[in-house]
Amino acid sequence: MRLLSKFIFWITGWKTAVKDSPEVKRCVLIAAPHTSNWDFLYARCALYILRIKVKFLIKNDYFFFPLGGILKAMGAIPVDRSKAKGNKVQALIDLFDQHKELVTMIPAEGTRSLVKEFRKGFYHVANGAKVPIALGYLDYKKKIAGIGPLFYPTGDIEKDLQKIYAFYRTINARYPENAMP
């Protein structure tokens, strides 16, 4: 998959970048901005290229034969979006408790449509599991898929979110009209 990912990046002109992040084996990886179906392809390719083993949440609607098997092999965890949010947060915290090494990728906006703020589940997972948040990004203008600095939650969610938002203000989404202001 790494070679295929490198080929996809070569043919499309994309590059990977890691900003100030040491190699981390346990973290919540924000995937932002999330405005296009292409985001998943570029993010997943970048993680293969960077050799980061990742688990990610995806609607359980996509887990049908043969796609379900492919998604699981890529690191997908099916999510029933009809269940209460607290259950998903606790399930991810429990997953961290069960694994010495775990990187979970979560699209902070939760949708490709315009939102006014990030959903806070990624923050509650990181805070509850006592792991850092890696600021993953896709900059379509520069064609760079990467990971920014690690962010350690302090428990003051509003203050911490402002610092996270500051990082993403310089990142260019595929569809800027659907990106957070």
Task: Give a structural overview.
There is one protein chain. The protein is of the alpha/beta class. Helices cover 36% and strands 23% of the residues. It has one domain. It has helices at 2-12, 38-49, 67-74, 85-98, 121-129, 157-168, and strands at 15-18, 26-32, 55-59, 76-79, 102-107, 133-139, 144-151. Strands 1-7-6-2-5-3-4 form a seven-stranded mixed β-sheet, with helices on both faces. A hairpin with a 4-residue loop joins strand 6 (133-139) and strand 7 (144-151). Helix 4 (85-98) packs parallel to helix 5. The radius of gyration is 15 Å and the shape is globular.
The neighbouring-strand order within the major sheet is 1-7-6-2-5-3-4
Our count of domains comes out at 1
Which residue ranges are poorly predicted, with pLDDT under 50 across at least 5 consecutive positions? none
Contiguous helical run count: 6
Q: Give a count of the beta strands, DSSP E runs of length 2 or more.
A: 7
Cα(first) to Cα(last) distance is: 34 Å
SSE arrangement, N to C: HEEHEHEHEHEEH
Overall geometric form: globular
**Structural class from helices and strands?**
alpha/beta
